[in-house]
Write a structure and sequence with these properties.
It holds the Pfam family GCV_H. This is Protein Abitram. It is found in: Cell projection, Dendrite; Cell projection, Growth cone; Cell projection, Lamellipodium; Nucleus speckle. The chain is an alpha+beta fold. It has one domain. Helix content is 36%, strand content 26%. The chain contains four helices and five strands; from the N terminus they run ββββααβαα. The strands form two sheets. The chain has a three-stranded antiparallel sheet. Strands 2-3 form a two-stranded antiparallel sheet. The chain is globular and about 45 Å long. The N and C termini lie far apart (45 Å).
């Protein structure tokens, strides 16, 4: 896409500010073109946890064709991802 911002694995996508004062920078993790940023997160950040498979995305990055296979091989499977989310939610509620 002409005019799209080119990202590397370390390019920052966003900064996350937590209620406990912690701050995190989320990186692209893949090389490619930035196609879309989910601006809905600005108004309702809870959709990251509430709808992670649909509306809870940070950005859409289009990887180069050559890299797409190696990128998808390293992704978590659905069940693995759900286990990570459950662990994080449990850890958050345990410390609250």
């Amino acid at each position: 896409m002409e005019g799209a911002q080119i990202l590397t694995e370390l390019s920052p996508l966003c900064k996350i500010y937590c209620s406990d004062g912690e701050e995190y920078t989320m990186s692209s993790c893949v090389r490619g073109e930035l196609m879309e940023v989910n601006e809905s997160l600005l108004h309702k950040p809870s959709i990251l946890q509430e709808k992670p498979s649909t509306e809870g995305y940070t950005a859409v990055v289009l990887p180069t064709f050559e890299e797409s296979k190696s990128i998808t091989e390293g992704l978590l499977k659905q069940k693995q991802y759900e286990e990570v989310v459950v662990k994080r939610i449990n850890a958050t509620t345990a410390t609250s």
